[in-house]
Design a protein that fits this description.
The strands form two sheets. The chain has an eight-stranded mixed beta sheet, with helices on both faces. It has a two-stranded antiparallel sheet with strand order 1-2. About 45% of the residues lie in helices and about 15% in strands. By secondary structure, the protein is α/β, with parallel strands linked by helices.
Length: about 375
Amino acid sequence: MFSFIKKKLGLGGSPAPADPPAALAPETRAAPVAAPASAPVLAAPPSALVTPPVPTPVKPAPEPVVERRSWMDKLKAGLRKTSSSISQVFTGTQIDDALYEELEAALLMADAGVAATEHLLADLKRRVKEAKASDPAAVKVLLIEAITELLKPLEQSLAVGQHTPTVIMVAGVNGAGKTTTIGKLTRHLSDSNQRVLLAAADTFRAAAREQLLVWADRNRVDIVSQENGDPAAVTFDAVQAGRARGCDVVIADTAGRLATQLHLMDELRKVKRVIGKAMDGAPHEVLLVVDGNTGQNALSQVKAFDEALGLTGLVVTKLDGTAKGGVLAAIALWSRGRPGGAVPVYFVGVGEKLEDLQTFNAREFAQALLT
Ligand SMILES: Nc1nc2c(ncn2[C@@H]2O[C@H](COP(=O)(O)OP(=O)(O)OP(=O)(O)O)[C@@H](O)[C@H]2O)c(=O)[nH]1
Ligand SMILES: [Mg+2]
């Protein structure tokens, strides 16, 4: 799916098989730090593992169109409730106060929050005046423009290749979709001949380790995992192993936690600090995975995790369920006032399958919200 990388690198390696390969030897699955670099568990031959000279955006090519369209269909289906209630606003014949009031209510219902709703309404009124729009259908088109412009700064690509390895730390509340997202991302990176190493830094539950092991096996990548280990120690080992083996990307999966669980947030900070000790300048990406169903709570999570860790990107999952989608507008507005600039939404998830993780596109999202 992320064939863009293949094109950019000109590597075109064959993708990993859909089914998990036969069980790998335990020593390759739970690779110790000191494992020799000569024992890669990868589909692609080492000779193909070229570090790109420039950062490589992890971005799908516009092709294949059918796949992207089916993803859009899922996104639209997920956001149908929101889109039908907003569309309802534009079925009348007049642009009047009642229309704007109805729109305000629909945006609030869609989880956009008060600030983003006010911002969008003011921006829309300005656009309507400028365009001298005279019928509600034209206002709807202008609203798509306003939402697209608001969301646009969130549309950025995750780049790998500038560092070897690029170290990515993944955090989020329980059940947000961290491990699933890492699995999908790993598969896309592997398919693009990027050598990935996973760190099972969710050491609380054996099941969590097992879950990541399954993804590692399926994708045939190395994993550093320790029974009852300390999350920071596991991550440290993984980054060191990633450096020793010349991996392109190291991804650390962490245990779910609420931002209000202060000791667990401290632990997360420690994981981040320790990654920096294992490699100067790392982690290069600190991603927060947010469940799109959590509404305005998603914005609270983004703020809290950003304060604790300094986020570099977001993944919004489960937009195929009961998610209303408007919270992205709230995140975008908050991002505008953030000293470090917008926190990009690198990926959006609309299901549990591999192809259900896609890059975020502001215009597509705005269209899905309204049509
Ligand atoms: N419908 C839907 N389900 C998803 C999506 N992403 C993840 N899931 C499901 O959400 C559930 C939780 O996903 P995990 O990846 O285990 O979440 P996690 O954040 O790692 O959870 P903890 O490690 O327990 O904190 C799983 O059943 C996933 O299959 C998505 O985009 N859409
Ligand atoms: Mg998990």
